[in-house]
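Write out a record, fold above all:
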Amino acid sequence: MGNELKLGKVLIHLSNTQSTNDYVSQLLTKSTPLPGTVVSADYQSDGKGQFGNKWQSEYGKNLLLSVYIRPEKLKASESFQLNVATTLAICSFLDQKLNKKIAAIKWPNDIIVDGKKIGGILIQNSIAGRLITESIIGIGLNVNQTEFLHDYNNYHPISMANYSGKNFERGELLIELLHCLEYFLTNTFENPYQFGGYFTNRLYGNGGLVKLKSKDTGKVMEGRILEVNNVGACRFEFGKKYCWLNINDWKMLLNGE
């Protein structure tokens, strides 16, 4: 399976689309794309993040892409490992391009550099029985955009250009990012849980105090994330109490949120 992945062997580039994930979804209603097909765009008019959040991106400045895969042997109960593999791949990619181990994961799906959001992912899975049959991995990464609406979605964005002081060639970055993603996905298919510890170690605020906010009540708790289990729930210590928090119910806050 791993040797057949070959991300980007089929690459569809669009000037403008509603969202690359939506484009792949529509493509699936008309044809059967090859596993590893990648759709990238210069602009998304309705780019999405987790839980319906919007993704702001200036035309032709950033990496906006979706990757179509067929995990085949990955169980539905192992779906969070696609999240683990993808976020770690982006962190590894940023380490290489920014020449520093600077990237962190804001539980469960955002990428943080210097305390600010530089990227995010949105994964959509199709499930039959106990197995994941198809996945669309959406990735947004701020590259050359240097000005943002700083109150957008209540986070302060940053880009690779902001951090490094230089511009990047997006075509080259896309190929390098896909190489990193292929490595982590291939190994995840062979051994789904091997990167769990790396994911926890890469968490934003790891070892220190972080704030989590309930999406239902708005309650904010401050404490430490001790670990993230195989389905993405985090074990949280606050005061002298411990609890497990579900990714669908809680949101990690950045400083200033």
About this structure: The mean pLDDT is 91. The chain is about 25% helix and 30% strand. The chain has two domains: 2-201, 210-253.
